[in-house]
């Protein structure tokens, strides 16, 4: 039982047939065959199994790809080419071209979208949001200038360009605009083809399509259809694994490794393919062999769920299925060339088969859809889109077939477990959204009814009353429920565009659909009822989400159905009747049972049900009521009510019945607020939340208010209010004084509950009367409603665009109407570099503010109240917030105003005011009073309004002012409402409401005068009482001012007390680091004081930083304070060590060569830095200083804490303690080491010698020779010549004294080890010779990177660095100079001799790189720092190190000059220029010709000294600047004044500061006899010639600073780029998370199995892997699909960062959810760039993780 060896010879036998095979001859043979199908099948039977599926499929991609290519080629040559010949009767290439030329294409674009491709929709012109354009069409369309929306496609779907039904305007782009010659849509494109081709095409298409359909729907594993059986049958099988959505990747991978014994990599590859294509063969061999694998897989995956689907299939069956897919793709390609052929294929596909109805080939495919694997589905769906949906005639026929099969397809889909995008049902969006098709299907196929019925059929689980019952759902039913929801989406498509014209048939079918819809709503009416839980808390939270999901999904449908109704009177009337009758049916059981109770109050009586929300069942789901409420408003809006009252069943309406259920629901909310339903758990809280939420409220809460308004307008207002009182269970409180008393004595909870209920009830009354912004209720337009919504949102606070959008309900087109009105009410404030743009309400709209706006939550309300009062106070106004003037009501709702002046309300008002006058025992609240005052205000406004609009007194029906002057009736027998108000005006406990009461009383006075005037003269304006008003106002102002002053004094006193306490506290807790940050900044800058700008006097002198003439700026004592113990300490070499918290990291920020691979840590030789700076070590510090001992204690504590934390809960912190990381104890800045502070060096003694260059060179050479021989002797090598004579006083065996205390030495080792460890990525090893080099390296690299930053930001070289960087560089430089003390002297000597040999070639030193491969600044720093070790051996005391430093600087500068001249000669430098140059130019020329003498024609001839000199000057500047920084920090020299400012004059200052001649060429000229031989030896290094001739990377100077990559202005360009990006590993597959490296521009396939690689033995994602090659472990990326910046550091750390793209409203769109066009904000991008260049990314990650712990848990390494 062995695996059948794949027969690799087979292809080669096929090869010979390739050569002999002639497609043309085969085609001609077929042409004359009597039975083409038989002939074709014979051909396929012979060849298909010999081309496809010849062996095992492997996981490794290379081989697989080659195999695929071979199949592809053979398939084209042997199978498809003859078909093409047959079709065209000529060479296919020529024939197809001709076809295309003659084709008159339809103007449809039809571009099918790839996953992730950008799509555009115009918010102004698209018929619905599903109408989209491809990028190309969009850019050529008028919509580019409109408000558009951009999204990324989920794959599938196509461009609607050219579809006139999809666009209200501009349906064609430039490319697809129909021209005159393009075919009329009526003309048959088939007629344009030659008749014989039509005949041939017809038969070929019929045969091939049938073949493909048969093969794809073939269910036998071992047999083939008739005529296709292979001539010779072998025992070769495949074990085929199918995709399902149940098993995870990991499960599949694990199982495969077990079952087919493959590597993990192969298993991953198999799993990826199964997921992508839907199936994959995982084993090839004889039947037994495959069966065995199958059983293992089934066994392994059947434990928890149903097993993975596996089939053992004969290889010939698989082969034919493969070819069937190829054939379908081929058909799709061929029809692209000709619309005639396309139509022909459509005809073939839809032709009814022999089995009658629904038996065409397309039907067969559709009906088998759910049985096919993903790959097959994708290909045939694509073909359907390319053919049927692109042909207007057949699109219709196909639509009808689709509708006929609709129910069956949906059932299949619901049972299937694939996502909808892989189902044929997903095509509904392409068909139903075409309005004409949707209408046709509705009329002819009764589509609306079909969809709704199919939907209802799938939800079978009902209770006794036939209502849905979701809480009894099993997991499987719930899954089904999830899938069946897509039907609602289809219904939405059908309804999305309203008909402009109605036919009788459409009316009939719509109403039929409406009936079905009412049936659906009936099943929802009253579902999930709740009963108040008393005593015990509920045991299990009842299910509520399913019902609300359904409600949410249906919200748009309900609104759309109402819109449809509003366009036709007949339909509206019929729908109203139907709805009413269903409602009556639903409510038929309501009045049953007990006797009604009768209520009486204020002289009025009414009868009502005996029902208590707090005791009986109540449901929040009342869709039938609410639909009726919606239709009722439409009756008013369309004026149908007033025009055809006789056709309406108004008489059948019973207002008390209508309001009953909505009222119960509102009371339920009030009781929940009052805390009466606490024991019912979160389920109810959630339901109430969604009831009010913007997603549901339009068809829930809003409609309930409307229903109350409708009912109230048809009833006696007193009766209405009494019913409301009774449902709120408050009637007794207002009906008898007794009760009130009893209630006062009841327990506290009950009192509080009742208070809240009274508040809620008053609020409800306010809403019922005041909410008139629905067109039909009030006389308003739809945009008034939106505008009011916005005004109230902005009254809370200024808001961003997206916040406003979220607060507004969207319609079915995802529009809120916001844009139309926003600019009229608000002004836009642009964002800065952070934050977002905000809209602010214009002050003139403040008067529309209504404190009791119905969409405010309680929290919103109190925020808005506070904001508004504050605003008024700022404007010096009173703080009354009176109700705004409401719009007039529509006639149908006109009588609502009477609520305001009815007796029952007056009684309620009177009662509350009376309680306010004599508040006692907590059974009264200010909120109650406030609401009553609001109601009074509303009534007064109404009366004033009527007076103003009336001509005489007689048409004013409102006389509230009159009524409130009457004394109250029983039970509140006290004074009149007005009298009560007057007495409350000066009540001391009602200070807050004083302004409002004043406002009311003024209104009353005004109205009185108006009434008096109207009785005498005509209309009167309100402004009459202004004089009086003024004085009142002034008085109020003065009073307010006095109070404000008092408040201020009080505040100051408290502040003083607080600060006193604080001081005390600080004194008490000095050991603890409790001090504020600012104070400590001040104390640490004591260390920085030495760097404070020099006095004028000093800077006038010429400052020199290097050489014997240098002056040390700061000789005074250096005092610093430890942030941990607060003690001051002087920095001394022998003192207690002080350290600076620091962070060392590898860096590639300056790299000019990202292709260089990382050095091998073990063998890397760091002594010479290559000028490409491909990898450096950067050190940064937050500048906070501690005692070394204090820090050690702190760090130990951190370690201990971490150990304990790890034991408790596994997980990460934002810092990695094991790697020495900690957070600075003061500023929490990420750190991983400390730098010890060392004392300043002293000025050189003036008596010291300063030897000339020549003698110094001589001495040094002697010294080096002596060192060489000493080392040889040490090594025991005595064979070599005589001992070199050491110069006088030079003792090679001298051991200098260590100048530092042990504690400082200890810290020197600490920092050394950190740089060593981080820089080389190795374990600490104090013995390693490379340790000191790495410290010098970080010193040089950090200075270089800071120099670049200062240069690019055009900041002065000195004085502009922040303290912390200054401190860091200063201590770093001094530290580097001293670190040699920690290593054996001989090692430093060795380094120095090697470094020196690069300048003065030394035959005893090997492997010295050529000067083109050395970064000169690094060389300077290393040699200066290592020289100290040599000078220590000189016991003469004659010369100081300073002379040596100066000579080294001179030598390196000359070497750099030569380096620049060698590399800067490009063609453009050689331009002709006049020869009369300055001295500098002549000298440059001279030096250049010297170099050319050595290198000859490798360097071009240059005649222009000016050009050359310019190159030199520009090229060397960064070096000089860096050197100036270095010596400044090394020698603590005061910088010259010219370098403290940016701008001109720098060159001279720089040269003089460095003790260099300002004509640098002088350096060479004055010593040229000495230097000439050196230059000769530099140039004759063999590598120089090789590099210049192109064998190495030439680095040119100045090195251009690295920047992040350029990003396009328009974000969609990026999306488009990303959409065409394919995963580099899994051949041509689209990447799911394309991610762009911002440093180098690579696109990566992130967050995916396919692109994981191993780094240091761990699997990491593409991003993390990339950071190791591109950023030495640190990376900045843009996740393109998410529009999100990603920072990654190492394997475990990362964070997200806002992207530099903003929409027009100044907001980012992380996750691309809103789809507004996004544009690059360059300031934000520069900010990110600066962060990177300043090496601040790791710190940002640290802070982000510290602030947000969830970031720590993200699996960054797999991104
Ligand atoms: Zn297009
Ligand atoms: Zn187009
Ligand atoms: Zn447009
Ligand atoms: Zn300390
Ligand atoms: Zn700090
Ligand atoms: Zn990169
Ligand atoms: Zn990939």
TrEMBL record:
<keyword id="KW-0833">Ubl conjugation pathway</keyword>
<dbReference type="Pfam" id="PF02207">
    <property type="entry name" value="zf-UBR"/>
</dbReference>
<dbReference type="InterPro" id="IPR039164">
    <property type="entry name" value="UBR1-like"/>
</dbReference>
<keyword id="KW-0158">Chromosome</keyword>
<keyword id="KW-1017">Isopeptide bond</keyword>
<keyword id="KW-0863">Zinc-finger</keyword>
<keyword id="KW-0539">Nucleus</keyword>
<keyword id="KW-0862">Zinc</keyword>
<keyword id="KW-0479">Metal-binding</keyword>
<dbReference type="Pfam" id="PF18995">
    <property type="entry name" value="PRT6_C"/>
</dbReference>
<dbReference type="InterPro" id="IPR042065">
    <property type="entry name" value="E3_ELL-like"/>
</dbReference>
<protein>
    <recommendedName>
        <fullName>E3 ubiquitin-protein ligase</fullName>
        <ecNumber>2.3.2.27</ecNumber>
    </recommendedName>
</protein>
<dbReference type="GO" id="GO:0000151">
    <property type="term" value="C:ubiquitin ligase complex"/>
</dbReference>
<keyword id="KW-0832">Ubl conjugation</keyword>
<comment type="function">
    <text>Ubiquitin ligase protein which is a component of the N-end rule pathway. Recognizes and binds to proteins bearing specific N-terminal residues that are destabilizing according to the N-end rule, leading to their ubiquitination and subsequent degradation.</text>
</comment>
<keyword id="KW-0597">Phosphoprotein</keyword>
<dbReference type="GO" id="GO:0008270">
    <property type="term" value="F:zinc ion binding"/>
</dbReference>
<dbReference type="InterPro" id="IPR047508">
    <property type="entry name" value="UBR-box_UBR2"/>
</dbReference>
<feature type="zinc finger region" description="UBR-type">
    <location>
        <begin position="107"/>
        <end position="178"/>
    </location>
</feature>
<dbReference type="Pfam" id="PF22960">
    <property type="entry name" value="WHD_UBR1"/>
</dbReference>
<comment type="pathway">
    <text>Protein modification; protein ubiquitination.</text>
</comment>
<dbReference type="InterPro" id="IPR044046">
    <property type="entry name" value="E3_ligase_UBR-like_C"/>
</dbReference>
<comment type="similarity">
    <text>Belongs to the E3 ubiquitin-protein ligase UBR1-like family.</text>
</comment>
<feature type="region of interest" description="Disordered">
    <location>
        <begin position="864"/>
        <end position="883"/>
    </location>
</feature>
<feature type="region of interest" description="Disordered">
    <location>
        <begin position="1015"/>
        <end position="1040"/>
    </location>
</feature>
<dbReference type="Pfam" id="PF02617">
    <property type="entry name" value="ClpS"/>
</dbReference>
<dbReference type="GO" id="GO:0016567">
    <property type="term" value="P:protein ubiquitination"/>
</dbReference>
<keyword id="KW-0007">Acetylation</keyword>
<keyword id="KW-0808">Transferase</keyword>
<dbReference type="InterPro" id="IPR014719">
    <property type="entry name" value="Ribosomal_bL12_C/ClpS-like"/>
</dbReference>
<keyword id="KW-0175">Coiled coil</keyword>
<dbReference type="InterPro" id="IPR055194">
    <property type="entry name" value="UBR1-like_WH"/>
</dbReference>
<feature type="domain" description="UBR-type">
    <location>
        <begin position="107"/>
        <end position="178"/>
    </location>
</feature>
<dbReference type="GO" id="GO:0005694">
    <property type="term" value="C:chromosome"/>
</dbReference>
<dbReference type="GO" id="GO:0005634">
    <property type="term" value="C:nucleus"/>
</dbReference>
<dbReference type="InterPro" id="IPR003126">
    <property type="entry name" value="Znf_UBR"/>
</dbReference>
<dbReference type="InterPro" id="IPR036390">
    <property type="entry name" value="WH_DNA-bd_sf"/>
</dbReference>
<dbReference type="GO" id="GO:0005737">
    <property type="term" value="C:cytoplasm"/>
</dbReference>
<feature type="compositionally biased region" description="Basic and acidic residues">
    <location>
        <begin position="1030"/>
        <end position="1040"/>
    </location>
</feature>
<dbReference type="GO" id="GO:0071596">
    <property type="term" value="P:ubiquitin-dependent protein catabolic process via the N-end rule pathway"/>
</dbReference>
<dbReference type="InterPro" id="IPR003769">
    <property type="entry name" value="ClpS_core"/>
</dbReference>
<dbReference type="GO" id="GO:0061630">
    <property type="term" value="F:ubiquitin protein ligase activity"/>
</dbReference>
């Amino acid at each position: 039982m062995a695996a059948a060896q794949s027969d690799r010879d087979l292809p080669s036998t096929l090869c010979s047939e390739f050569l002999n095979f002639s497609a043309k001859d085969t085609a001609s043979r077929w042409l004359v065959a009597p039975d083409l199908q038989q002939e074709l099948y014979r051909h396929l039977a012979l060849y298909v199994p010999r081309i496809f599926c010849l062996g095992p499929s492997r996981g490794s991609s290379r081989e697989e790809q080659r195999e695929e290519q071979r199949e592809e080629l053979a398939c084209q040559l042997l199978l498809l080419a003859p078909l093409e010949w047959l079709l065209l009767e000529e060479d296919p290439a020529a024939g197809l071209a001709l076809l295309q030329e003659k084709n008159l294409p339809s103007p449809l674009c039809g571009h099918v979208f790839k996953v992730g491709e950008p799509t555009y929709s115009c918010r102004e012109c698209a018929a619905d949001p599903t109408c989209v354009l491809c990028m190309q069409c969009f850019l050529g369309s008028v919509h580019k200038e409109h408000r558009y929306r951009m999204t990324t496609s989920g794959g599938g779907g196509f461009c609607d360009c050219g579809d006139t039904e999809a666009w209200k305007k501009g349906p064609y782009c430039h490319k697809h605009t129909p021209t005159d010659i393009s075919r009329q849509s009526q003309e048959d494109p088939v007629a344009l083809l030659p008749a014989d081709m039509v005949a041939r095409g017809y038969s070929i298409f019929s045969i091939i399509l049938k073949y493909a359909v048969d093969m794809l729907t073939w269910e036998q594993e071992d047999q083939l259809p008739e005529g296709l059986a292979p001539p010779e049958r072998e025992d070769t099988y495949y074990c085929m694994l199918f995709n399902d959505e149940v098993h995870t990747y990991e499960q599949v991978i694990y199982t495969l490794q077990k079952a087919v014994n493959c590597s993990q990599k192969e298993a991953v590859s198999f799993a990826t393919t199964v997921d992508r294509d839907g199936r994959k063969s995982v084993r090839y061999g004889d039947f037994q062999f495959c069966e065995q694998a199958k059983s293992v897989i089934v066994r392994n995956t059947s434990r928890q769920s149903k097993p993975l689907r596996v089939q053992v299939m004969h290889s010939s069956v698989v082969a034919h299925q493969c070819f069937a897919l190829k054939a379908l793709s081929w058909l799709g390609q061929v029809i692209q060339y000709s619309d005639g052929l396309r139509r022909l294929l459509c005809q073939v596909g839809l032709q009814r088969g022999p089995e009658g109805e629904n038996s065409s080939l397309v039907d067969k495919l559709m009906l088998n859809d759910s049985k096919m694997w993903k790959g097959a589905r994708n290909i045939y769906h694509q073909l359907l889109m390319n053919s049927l949906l692109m042909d207007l005639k057949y699109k219709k026929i196909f639509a009808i077939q689709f509708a006929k099969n609709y129910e069956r397809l949906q059932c299949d889909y619901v049972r299937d477990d694939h996502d909808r995008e892989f189902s044929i049902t997903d095509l509904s969006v392409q068909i139903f959204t075409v309005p004409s098709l949707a209408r046709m299907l509705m009329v002819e196929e009764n589509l609306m009814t079909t969809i709704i019925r199919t939907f209802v059929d799938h939800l079978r689980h009902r209770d006794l009353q036939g209502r849905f019952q979701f809480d009894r759902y099993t997991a499987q039913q719930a899954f089904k429920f999830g899938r069946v929801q897509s039907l609602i989406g289809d219904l939405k498509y059908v309804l999305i565009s309203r008909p402009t014209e109605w036919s009788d048939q459409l009316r009939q079918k719509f109403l039929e659909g409406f009936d079905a819809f009412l049936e659906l709503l009936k099943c929802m009416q009253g579902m999930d009822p709740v009963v108040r839980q008393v005593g015990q808390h509920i045991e299990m939270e009842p299910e509520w989400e399913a019902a609300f999901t359904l409600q949410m999904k249906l919200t748009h449908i309900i609104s759309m159905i109402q819109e449809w109704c509003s366009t036709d009177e007949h339909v509206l009337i019929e729908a109203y009747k139907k709805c009413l009758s269903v409602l009556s049916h639903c409510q038929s059981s309501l009045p049953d049972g007990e006797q009604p109770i009768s209520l009486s109050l204020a002289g009025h009586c009414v009868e009502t049900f005996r029902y208590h929300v707090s005791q009986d069942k109540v449901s929040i789901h009342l869709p039938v009521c609410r639909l009726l409420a919606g239709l009722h408003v439409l009756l008013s809006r369309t004026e149908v009510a007033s025009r055809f009252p006789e056709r309406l069943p108004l008489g059948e309406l019973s207002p008390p019945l209508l309001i009953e259920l909505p009222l119960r629901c509102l009371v339920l909310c009030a009781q929940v607020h009052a805390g009466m339903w606490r024991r019912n758990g979160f389920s109810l809280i959630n339901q109430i939340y969604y009831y009010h939420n913007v997603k549901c409220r339009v068809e829930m809460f809003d409609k309930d208010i409307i229903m109350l308004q409708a009912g109230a307008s048809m009833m006696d207002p007193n009766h209405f209010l009494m019913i409301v009182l009774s449902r709120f269970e408050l009637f007794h409180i207002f009906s008898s004084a007794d009760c009130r008393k009893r209630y006062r004595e009841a327990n506290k909870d009950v009192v509080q509950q009742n208070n809240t209920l009274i508040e809620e009830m008053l609020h409800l009354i306010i809403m019922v009367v005041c909410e008139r912004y629905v067109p039909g209720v009030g006389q308003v337009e739809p945009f008034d409603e939106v505008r009011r919504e916005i005004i109230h949102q902005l009254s809370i606070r200024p808001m961003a665009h997206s916040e406003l959008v979220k607060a507004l309900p969207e319609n079915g087109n995802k529009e809120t109407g916001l844009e139309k009105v926003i600019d009229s009410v608000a002004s836009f404030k642009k964002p800065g570099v952070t934050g977002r743009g905000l809209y602010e309400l214009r002050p003139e709209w403040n008067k529309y503010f209504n404190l009791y706006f119905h969409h405010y939550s309680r929290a919103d309300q109190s925020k808005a109240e506070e904001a508004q009062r504050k605003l008024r106070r700022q404007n010096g106004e009173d703080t009354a917030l009176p109700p705004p003037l409401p719009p007039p009501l529509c006639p149908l709702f006109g009588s609502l105003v009477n609520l305001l002046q009815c007796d029952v309300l007056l009684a309620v008002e009177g009662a509350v005011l009376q309680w306010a006058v004599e508040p006692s025992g907590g059974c009264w609240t200010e909120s109650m009073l406030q609401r009553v005052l609001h109601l009074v205000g509303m009534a007064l406004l109404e009366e004033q309004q009527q007076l103003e609009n009336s001509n005489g007194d007689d048409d004013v029906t409102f006389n509230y002012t009159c009524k409130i002057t009457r004394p109250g009736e029983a039970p509140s027998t006290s004074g009149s409402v007005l009298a009560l108000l007057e007495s409350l005006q000066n009540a001391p406990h009602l200070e807050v409401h004083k302004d409002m009461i004043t406002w009311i009383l003024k209104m009353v006075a005004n109205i009185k005068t108006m009434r008096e005037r109207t009785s005498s003269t005509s209309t009167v304006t309100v402004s009459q009482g202004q004089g009086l008003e003024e004085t009142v106002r002034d008085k109020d102002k003065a009073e307010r001012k006095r109070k404000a002053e008092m408040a201020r004094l009080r505040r100051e006193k408290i502040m003083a007390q607080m600060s006193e306490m604080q001081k005390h506290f600080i004194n008490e807790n000095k050991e603890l680091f409790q001090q504020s940050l600012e104070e400590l900044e001040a104390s640490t800058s004591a260390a920085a004081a030495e760097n404070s700008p020099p006095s004028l006097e000093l800077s006038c002198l010429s400052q020199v930083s290097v050489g014997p003439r240098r002056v040390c700026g700061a000789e005074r004592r250096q005092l610093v304070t430890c942030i941990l113990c607060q003690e001051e300490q002087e920095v001394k070499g022998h003192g207690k060590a002080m350290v600076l918290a620091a962070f060392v990291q590898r860096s590639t920020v300056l790299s000019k060569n990202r292709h260089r691979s990382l050095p091998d840590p073990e063998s890397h030789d760091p002594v010479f830095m290559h000028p490409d700076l491909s990898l450096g070590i950067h050190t940064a510090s937050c500048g906070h200083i501690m005692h070394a001992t204090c820090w050690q204690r702190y760090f130990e504590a951190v370690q201990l804490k971490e150990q304990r934390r790890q034991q408790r809960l596994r997980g990460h912190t934002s810092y990695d303690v094991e790697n020495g990381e900690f957070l600075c104890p003061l500023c929490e800045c990420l750190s991983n080491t400390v730098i010890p502070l060392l004392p300043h060096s002293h000025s050189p003694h003036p008596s010291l010698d300063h030897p000339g260059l020549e003698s110094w060179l001589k001495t040094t050479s002697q010294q080096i020779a002596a060192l060489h021989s000493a080392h040889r002797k040490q090594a025991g090598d005595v064979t070599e010549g005589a001992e070199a004579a050491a110069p006088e006083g030079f003792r090679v065996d001298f051991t200098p004294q260590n100048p530092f205390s042990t504690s400082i030495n200890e810290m020197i080792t600490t920092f050394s080890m950190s740089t060593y460890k981080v820089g080389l990525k190795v374990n600490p090893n104090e013995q390693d010779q490379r340790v000191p080099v790495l410290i010098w390296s970080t010193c040089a690299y950090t200075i270089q990177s800071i120099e670049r930053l200062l240069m690019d930001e055009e900041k002065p070289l000195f004085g502009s660095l922040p303290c912390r960087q200054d401190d860091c560089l200063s201590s770093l430089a001094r530290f580097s100079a001293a670190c040699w003390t920690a290593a054996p002297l001989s090692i430093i000597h060795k380094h120095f001799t090697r470094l020196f040999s690069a300048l003065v070639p030394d035959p005893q030193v090997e492997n010295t790189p050529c000067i083109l491969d050395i970064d000169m600044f690094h060389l300077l720093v290393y040699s200066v720092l290592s020289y100290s070790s040599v000078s220590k051996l000189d016991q003469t005391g004659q010369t100081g190190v300073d002379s040596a430093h100066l000579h080294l600087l001179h030598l390196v500068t000359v070497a750099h000059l030569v380096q620049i001249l060698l590399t800067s000669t490009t063609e453009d430098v050689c331009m002709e220029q006049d020869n009369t140059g300055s001295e500098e130019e002549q000298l440059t020329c001279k030096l250049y010709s010297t170099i050319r003498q050595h290198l000859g024609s490798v360097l071009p001839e240059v005649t222009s000294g000016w050009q050359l000199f310019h190159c030199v000057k520009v090229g060397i500047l960064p070096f000089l600047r860096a050197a100036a920084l270095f010596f400044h920090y090394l020698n603590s020299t005061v910088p010259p004044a010219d370098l403290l400012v940016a701008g001109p004059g720098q060159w001279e200052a720089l040269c003089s500061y460095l003790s260099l001649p300002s004509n640098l060429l002088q350096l060479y000229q004055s010593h040229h006899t000495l230097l000439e031989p050196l230059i000769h030896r530099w140039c004759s290094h063999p590598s120089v010639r090789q590099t210049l001739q192109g064998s190495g990377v030439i680095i040119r100077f100045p090195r251009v600073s690295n920047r992040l990559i350029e990003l396009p202005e328009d974000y969609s360009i990026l999306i488009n780029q990303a959409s065409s990006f394919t995963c580099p590993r899994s051949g041509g597959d689209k990447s799911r998370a394309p991610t762009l490296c911002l440093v180098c521009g690579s696109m990566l396939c992130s967050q995916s199995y396919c692109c994981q690689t191993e780094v240091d033995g761990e699997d990491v994602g593409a991003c993390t892997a990339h950071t190791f090659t591109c950023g030495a472990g640190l990376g900045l990326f843009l996740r393109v699909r998410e529009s999100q910046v990603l920072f990654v550091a190492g394997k475990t750390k990362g964070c997200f960062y806002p992207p530099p793209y903003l929409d027009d409203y100044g907001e980012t769109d992380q996750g691309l959810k809103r789809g507004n066009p996004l544009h690059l904000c360059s300031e934000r991008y520069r900010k990110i760039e600066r962060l990177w260049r300043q090496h601040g990314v790791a710190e940002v990650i640290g802070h982000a993780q510290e602030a947000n712990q969830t970031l720590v848990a993200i699996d960054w390494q797999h991104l």
